[in-house]
Design goal:
Hypothetical protein af1432; Four Helix Bundle (Hemerythrin (Met), subunit A); mainly alpha; 2 strands; 2 domains; elongated
């Protein structure tokens, strides 16, 4: 975790700003721009770490001070490097970080999303200015984003969350995961939450039919057996379908959906004394647990048209290095859907209390790092790289 500079500087909040996104207003030393960009990337990574740390400890004073210090440093660096067009954006986020540090705004996952999206925009604009010599971004959009950030800082508490989401929509208007705006009344944005299971299926082109409805019903019954499983399949489904879509759907979405529903269904028929056991499983219990992929496969093969899903279910515990089960497949011999599902399953086991692991859930960033350590041995590195792109996007939009 980075250490902030001593927070002795005075900070004056800015009012409404007329911003200008124009390269001719900058005074950039072109020869030093690559070094500045590398320094920005380092600063961005530090900001991301602090933002994620604050999600887990939103009242941590040190993290709040560090966040403010980092954005103050970013603004100062932009001024010194001559990127004058980008200073207003940094100023707006610094104002927000100051109000968080001063405990005048409560930190939340939506604030975290907003901060990370602002860093993305700053990086995009820096890249354009350095590589193209100009900004290929709408002046009106830039002004609107700066105005939206100001409205967050000046909003009353009951209006703030809606204003945060309004700013998120401006920063990432094309995302398929954006919050749903149902109505705008005056300055108030009225929202309803996205994400339920059916909206996820529709988003990724799954054609919901009677078989999937049946599998879904089994999944709900399974989750109701143990508090460890509640909501788990929806999380897995979102990760798996998005990874598949990012890779241009090498797995049929309906087949992958059925596999997510059914991959652990065999566990539903096992004694809770085994599922919830605190200690290490004995050989008989381990053999029983390892029989669940076969049980899920058998159910799917009894129904017409689910061969691909059945293969995914059978092999979702295979490992890339051949040390998995039941068939010790390795590398490209493992079905693509099984590789996707293995990653989604592994990540969820690390971020949530698992049915056969009573360890406390790990922080988000640590879970990603641990999963990446499995690339090339337990998990397929190709799919891990895709996961890294997808999980960040899902996390920013409150789905993971």
């Amino acid at each position: 975790m980075p250490t902030s500079r001593p927070q002795t500087m005075q900070h004056a909040l800015t009012g409404p700003l007329k911003v200008q996104l124009a390269a001719h207003d900058d005074e950039v030393d072109e020869e030093a721009s690559d070094d500045f960009y590398a320094a920005f990337i380092d600063l961005e990574q530090q900001c991301e770490q602090v933002a994620i740390a604050l999600e887990n400890q939103p009242n941590n004073t040190q993290h709040m001070q560090t966040l403010f210090g980092l954005f103050h440093q970013l603004k100062s660096n932009l001024i010194l490097a001559g990127f004058h067009s980008l200073v207003p954006l940094a100023q707006r986020v610094e104002d927000l970080a100051y109000l968080i540090k001063s405990v005048r705004i409560s930190y939340s996952t939506s604030i975290s999303d907003l901060i990370l999206l602002n860093l993305d925009l700053t990086k995009l604009l820096l890249s354009q200015r350095i590589n193209l010599g100009d900004y290929a971004y709408s002046q009106d959009s830039y002004q609107n984003i700066c105005d939206a950030l100001y409205k967050i800082s000046s909003a009353h508490e009951e209006q703030r969350e809606a204003r945060v989401f309004a700013a998120i929509l401006l920063l990432d208007p094309h995302t398929s995961l954006k919050p749903q705006v149902t109505e705008v009344v005056g300055d108030t944005v009225v929202l309803h939450p996205q994400s339920n299971l059916m909206s996820i299926l529709d988003q990724f082109g799954v054609h919901f039919n009677d078989d999937l409805k049946f599998f879904q019903g089994l999944m709900y019954a399974f989750e109701s057996r143990s508090r460890y499983w509640e909501g788990r399949h929806e999380r897995l489904l979102h990760i798996a379908l998005m990874m598949n879509a990012y890779a241009h759907n090498p797995v049929t979405p309906n087949q992958l959906t059925a596999a997510v529903y059914m991959h652990d269904i065999g566990m539903a028929f096992m004694p809770l004394s085994v599922l919830h056991k605190d200690g290490k499983l004995n050989s008989e219990e381990l053999a029983l647990m390892r029989s669940h992929p076969q049980m899920g496969q058998d159910i799917l093969l009894r129904m017409s048209g689910w061969q691909e899903a059945a293969e995914i279910v059978r092999h979702h515990h295979e490992r890339f290095d051949g040390s998995g089960y039941p068939d010790q497949l390795q590398g490209s011999a493992i079905p693509k859907g099984a590789g996707i599902l293995a990653i989604a399953d592994t990540f969820d086991a690390r971020t949530h209390e698992h049915v056969y692991s009573k360890n406390l859930k790990r922080p988000f960033i640590r879970s990603i790092l641990e999963l990446n350590q499995c690339a090339g041995n337990q998990l397929d590195e190709h799919w891990v790289n895709i996961f890294n792109v997808v999980i960040k996007k899902l996390h920013r939009h409150h789905f993971i």
